[in-house]
User: Which sequence fits this backbone?
């Protein structure tokens, strides 16, 4: 079965990505993260609704969920073109995070997990996209806007650094999906009702 390695990687990456970090960390503080703030299980809502250390911890783990599958997949199951199996690993890790079966297929928006994935497959592009995120965030104080700008820049950055069409096509797909998942945020930004980031005391 020629497709067996890809199937194994897809299932394993999905399971890794589906680990509901934000939900479990918030629960440890007695908070159901789905019932507070934006209702999202991602790091930003945990940081706002629980505390900054909890949010930072969630971000790191969610990023690792995207980083490890594409890093390890070509080492464990090498292919003639490792870029394909890396993209499969990264895609299914993000899919698992966004639609975790442990919470009724309701998960996060995949920004941290996608960042981890691209750190593994094209780290210079990821670092520049992260720099764009930081710049927009400190200028405007909107996490959503910073995320949208960073992910929109990612395909061009990936192509510029890797010259790999597989990675570039995947970056484009991730950008489109991530921006679509930010549709409510975009609507609030346009209406002037999006909440600016405010630090939660530790």
Assistant:
């Amino acid at each position: 079965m020629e497709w067996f390695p890809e199937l194994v990687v897809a299932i394993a990456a999905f399971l890794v990505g589906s680990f509901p970090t934000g939900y479990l960390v918030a629960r440890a503080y007695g908070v159901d993260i789905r019932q507070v703030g934006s209702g999202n299980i991602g790091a930003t809502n945990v940081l706002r609704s629980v505390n900054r250390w909890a949010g930072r911890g969630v971000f790191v783990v969610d990023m690792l969920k995207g980083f490890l599958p594409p890093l390890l997949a070509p080492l464990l199951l090498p292919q003639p073109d490792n870029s394909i199996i890396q993209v499969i690993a990264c895609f299914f890790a993000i899919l698992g995070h966004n639609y975790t079966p442990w919470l009724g297929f309701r998960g996060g928006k995949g920004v941290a997990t996608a960042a981890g994935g691209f750190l593994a497959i094209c780290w210079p592009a990821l670092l520049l996209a992260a720099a764009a995120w930081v710049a927009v965030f400190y200028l405007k104080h909107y996490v959503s806007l910073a995320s949208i700008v960073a992910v929109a820049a990612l395909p061009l950055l990936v192509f510029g650094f890797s010259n790999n069409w597989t990675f570039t096509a995947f970056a484009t797909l991730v950008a489109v999906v991530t921006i679509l998942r930010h549709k409510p945020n975009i609507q609030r930004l346009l209406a002037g009702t999006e909440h600016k980031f405010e630090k939660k005391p530790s």
